[in-house]
Amino acid sequence: MAREKPEPFKKYRRTNIAEMRPYVLGEDLSNISVSGVDNPAEDLGMIARNPKNHDDMWYVARKYFEDNFVPMEE
Predict the structure, then answer these.
(1) Which residues of 18-40 are buried (b: 16+ CB within 10 A; e: fewer)?
(2) Alpha-carbon span 25 to 74, nearest angstrom
């Protein structure tokens, strides 16, 4: 049986606010999703969380954060 080809990637603009904080060197990441290509101890990026489920957290690489996010005016 032939596998279907996935659709190509498309560009999407975010429509919501991201909640993030800096990663703290040495902090426990056992409840935070970290991609295998990321190295928080060397990169010192950000921890993001789902605003509707604060238990859903993931690591965001520093370069990606710097290229794609700006602080909100409070």
Answers:
(1) eebeebeeeeebeebebeeebeb
(2) 27
pLDDT band of 15, cuts 50, 70, 90? confident
Domain ranges of the chain: 19-68
Round to whole Å and give the CA distance between 63 and 74: 24
pLDDT single digits (tens) 32-55: 999 999 999 999 999 999 999 999
Q: Please list the residues that pair with 27 across neighbouring strands.
A: none
Single pTM value for the model: 0.83
